[in-house]
What we know:
It contains 7 helices and 4 strands. By secondary structure, the chain is α+β, with helices and mostly antiparallel strands. The chain has one domain.
Amino acid sequence: MNFEELIEKVRHIPYGRNSNRYDFSLILTENKGTCSSKHAFLKDFADKNDIENVKLYIGIFKMNEVNTPKLEDLLSKNAIDYLPEAHCYLTINGTPLDVTTSESFYDRIKEEILKEIEIIPKQVSDFKVDYHKVFLKKWIEETNQNYTFDEIWDIREQCIQKLSE
């Protein structure tokens, strides 16, 4: 299987969290994956096969009811316009590639990205979570949110659960 074929295979794997966030090869055996596991898997494959100009990113974006319509009720119920959410994707020769679902989620969020950093595959687990938490804590303080960090993180987890349904 070449890289393009693998990309198409991964694109059609259903969205869902894997049993072990440190083993992104589980996307194949468990037939599910998140933005993190799917893109880390592809970046790792590219690195091991000397495929150049493939970069892995974390983008913090404004997750809202427009770019993520499934969350409209949950965000409204909590009186939140948006939550900063961490999303992983690739660029290949500078062109963004998002295989989280069969349709590119990146296209829906590109105008809402607040910050973007390049990472390596093993950083999609602990580093990504820690980076996201630091960003959220700063956002809560800077925007005078009416919620604590733990409350915001809980609402975020409810959002992720709803997206997995």
